[in-house]
Amino acid sequence: MKISILGGGGFLGRKIAAKLAKDGTLGGHKVTALTLFDMVEPPKPEAPFPVTSVGGDVVNLPDAAIPEGTDVVFHLAAVVSAQAEADYDLGRRVNIRGTDAVIDRCRALGTRPRVVFTSSVASFSTNQNSILPDNTRQIPGNSYGAQKAAAELILADASRRGFLDVVTLRLPTVIVRPGRPNKAASSFFSGIVREPLLGLDTELPVPDDFAVWVCSPRRAVDWLMHAASMDTSKMGLDRSIDPPGISTTVAHLLQALDEVSPGASSHVKRVADETIAAIVSTWPPAFEALHARTLGFSAHEPVLEVIQAFVEDDLAATKADRKL
How many alpha carbons fall within 13 Å on the CB side of residue 263? Predict the structure, then answer.
């Protein structure tokens, strides 16, 4: 099985590559080659199969990013939420035209590869009191969400036409992300856990009772791997899935943080940010996510375990990256 990861230098791309390298299989099939693509050549994990690293522009996608014989493509390449809102042209270019380029390359292969696409809860807009059922209409309240929703549709149509076999996951906000803050509007949800665990102050731009739909990196990778190998024969035209995340509030998240590291939440400073709040306040705080369970997507662990997993998996590497 040959696999390509577009956005292979990003957080989730590196996690998927590491798991593939460790397991050597996907869905019971032996991995025979892995290609990692990003703006600059991503680092290669040590693996029992050949790994190729390719740098370039996703809009002008080089053939080497999805080579002949590719069976699975993880399409993770994107401009994130706040950046897409601040730079409309860049967001449209990467998130929509980049997806067009992926379709064109998969179509040229003529082998209908599985494409796993990461969409987002940002493709919906609602209020803090909502729990969205699986058939909720997407009406995005931000450019990033609109671009993701548009990409979902063109991928689903390409799947209907037989050019590829797509599974789209509308990922919750993924926490706790290692490394450094990024330009995503949701970055602070990781920051209010990660920075205090590093002994650093951080800002909270929303109230403590703000609710958010989240998932852990472990669960996100598990869902993505399942999407890459699941049977899609019963999905029909609707190729988008709301995976079973977990709803939490900032207050609950900080309480769990203090259970893991007593007093750590004192590093969180309340500093309102109307720009960030305006983006994230339209995102759904909870989903029913019933359909995902019937398709075999695993249930989520409690918030306390999410923080403990960050400590086990990524805290040491994050400290080294930040030279703390």
Answer: 1
> Cα–Cα distances in Å, from 211 out to 130, 207, 228, 300?
10, 9, 30, 17
Query: Looking at residue 181, what is its pLDDT?
Result: 86
Cα–Cα distance, 168 to 159 (Å, whole number): 11
**CA dist., res. 104 & res. 183, Å (int):** 29
Whether 324 has a pLDDT exceeding 80, the answer reads no
Active site residues per annotation:
144
Burial class (CB in 10 A: 0-12, 13-18, 19+), 56: middle
Cβ-Cβ contacts under 8 Å for 54 (sequence gap 6 or more):
35, 36, 37, 41, 62, 64, 65
Residue 169 near residue 241 (C-beta atoms within 8 A): yes
Residues near 24 by beta carbon (within 8 Å), at least 6 away in sequence: 30, 31, 47, 48, 49
pTM: 0.96
| Alpha-carbon separation of residue 316 from 21, 125, 198 (angstroms) | 21, 36, 10
Helix residue ranges per DSSP H, the chain: 11-23, 81-86, 88-92, 98-109, 143-160, 187-197, 217-229, 250-260, 274-280, 290-294, 303-313, 315-322
Structure token pair of residue 207: 């109230």
Query: Residue type for 222, please?
Result: D
Radius of gyration of the chain (CA): 19
Each residue's pLDDT tens digit, 232-273: 998 999 999 999 999 999 999 999 999 999 999 999 999 999
All structural domains of the chain: 2-172+217-244+286-300 (3.40.50.720)
Q: Do 164 and 113 meet the contact criterion of CB atoms below 8 Å apart?
A: yes
Phi/psi region, residue 236 (left: phi>0; alpha: psi -120 to 50; beta: rest), is left
The residue written with tokens 């102050």 in the block is 201
